[in-house]
């Protein structure tokens, strides 16, 4: 029997599996250690424990399954991410249907021929706005090169200089706002062509901001337009090519102008999403950003926030539209339009192809946990048979 002097004190770390473990000690190692760490208040510690639980076969999986309904949403995300790639029915039945969706990520070559198609998934939460739902997709934080390289075909000078930007995690609309969603919040439909499932268009910038304000009042969350940096980061989804599909787009991938009569805005889900699970980032409707228009990137922020001195009446639009050729639909492409304040009067919009997408800050995920969550998204997972040997 150990002497009282050698007995572990409160919060001392001892190895799981020892015969004598004081009830007030912090247990490390083994299933017992994982279970002990899952009981602590810190979400950061619980997420790290979940990752370790994968080492312990069925007993560890049981602990991860239990964490799917944890009170902390960031712990839920971590548990779901770990379980998502384990292709067993007994596992999949525990995954919540209302927080994860699967999709195909398509890549094409310079001729527009598909060269890869891989399965991916994303986390989201459904925002109830009455008789409609807005799906908000988790966009993991990261650093990327904003703007276009000098060698990119179709680039313009205001896409320079290419520079590094770090974007914190946030949630973005899975689709641009639809006519039905606009109607539910604003009580009207200004679109040039009526169809509830189609993307809303003919939206002045200040009306897009008003939509966000009303949605914020309804939900208690602070909804807003994406910053220009957030938009490009979310569009690229880890890619560096002109389009998130690759070096080009085709009519099967996006709704853009190819000559002849203009196409109208369509349902965004008619085309494949990018690797973050966002639809309609190229073409269909131009999307308002929160930023004032800057003629270059020399003075714009590098932390993912908006550039908004508000001494300028032009706002930034991103993504191109059904009236725009490929060059204007690139990830780095920028356009601008007048955004008069409503007390002066509505601007005369240059076309009927302006809509928007909404964002909300990542209120569910603490910044210190983002790197842990991102490490769990790795496509490389332990082999279940090896784990159980």
Q: Briefly, what is this?
A:
This protein has 389 residues and is α+β, with helices and mostly antiparallel strands. Helix content is 23%, strand content 20%. The chain folds into two domains: 13-99 and 368-388, no CATH class; 101-356, Alpha-Beta Complex (paralog of FGE (formylglycine-generating enzyme)).
Uncertain segments of ≥5 residues (pLDDT<50)? 5-27, 364-370, 377-389
**Overall number of domains:** 2
Helix and strand string, N-terminal first? EEHHHHHEEEEEEHHEHEEEEEHH
Strand content: 15-25%
Strand order of the largest sheet: 3-4-5-8-14-9
Q: Would you count the extended β strands for me? A: 14
Structural Rg: 24 Å
Mean model confidence by pLDDT: 82
* CATH H-level superfamily of the largest domain: paralog of FGE (formylglycine-generating enzyme)
User: What overall geometry do the principal axes of the alpha carbons give?
Assistant: globular
Q: Briefly, what CATH class of the largest domain?
A: Alpha Beta
State the helix count.
10
**What is the correct CATH architecture of the largest domain?**
Alpha-Beta Complex
Q: Assign a percent range to the helix content.
A: 10-25%
Q: What composes the largest sheet?
A: 6 strands, antiparallel
Oligomer: single chain
- End-to-end distance: 34 Å
């Amino acid at each position: 029997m150990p002497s009282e002097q050698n007995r572990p004190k409160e919060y001392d770390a001892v190895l799981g599996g020892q015969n004598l473990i004081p009830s007030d000690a912090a247990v490390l190692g083994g299933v017992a250690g994982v279970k002990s760490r899952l009981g602590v208040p810190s979400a950061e510690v619980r997420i790290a424990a979940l990752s370790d639980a994968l080492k312990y076969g069925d007993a560890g999986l049981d602990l991860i399954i239990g964490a799917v309904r944890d009170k902390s949403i960031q712990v839920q995300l971590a548990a779901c991410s770990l379980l998502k790639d384990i292709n067993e029915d007994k596992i999949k039945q525990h995954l919540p249907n209302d927080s994860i969706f699967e999709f195909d990520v398509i890549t094409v070559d310079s001729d527009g021929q598909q060269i890869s198609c891989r399965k991916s998934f994303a986390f989201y939460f459904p925002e109830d706005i009455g008789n409609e739902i807005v799906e908000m997709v988790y966009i993991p934080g990261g650093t990327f090169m904003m703007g276009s390289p000098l060698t990119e075909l179709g680039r313009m000078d205001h896409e320079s200089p290419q520079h590094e930007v770090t974007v914190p995690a946030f949630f973005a609309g899975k689709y641009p706002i639809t006519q039905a969603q606009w109607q539910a919040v604003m009580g009207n439909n200004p679109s040039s062509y009526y169809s509830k499932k189609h993307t809303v268009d003919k939206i002045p910038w200040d009306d897009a901001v008003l939509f966000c304000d009303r949605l914020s009042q309804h939900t208690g969350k602070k909804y807003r337009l994406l910053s220009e940096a957030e938009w490009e980061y979310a569009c690229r989804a880890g890619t560096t090519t002109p389009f998130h599909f690759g070096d080009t787009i085709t009519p099967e991938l996006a709704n853009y102008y190819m000559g002849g009569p203009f196409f109208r805005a369509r349902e965004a889900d008619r085309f494949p999403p990018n690797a973050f699970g966002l639809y309609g980032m190229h073409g269909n409707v131009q999307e308002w950003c929160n930023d004032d228009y800057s003629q270059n990137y020399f003075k714009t922020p590098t932390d993912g926030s908006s550039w908004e001195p508000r001494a300028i009446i032009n706002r930034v639009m991103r993504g191109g539209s059904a009236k725009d050729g490929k060059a204007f639909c690139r990830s780095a492409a920028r356009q601008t339009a007048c955004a008069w304040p409503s007390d002066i009067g509505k601007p005369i919009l240059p076309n009927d192809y302006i809509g928007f997408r909404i964002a909300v800050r990542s209120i569910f995920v603490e910044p210190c946990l983002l790197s842990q969550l991102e490490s769990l998204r790795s496509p490389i997972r332990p082999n279940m048979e090896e784990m159980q040997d």
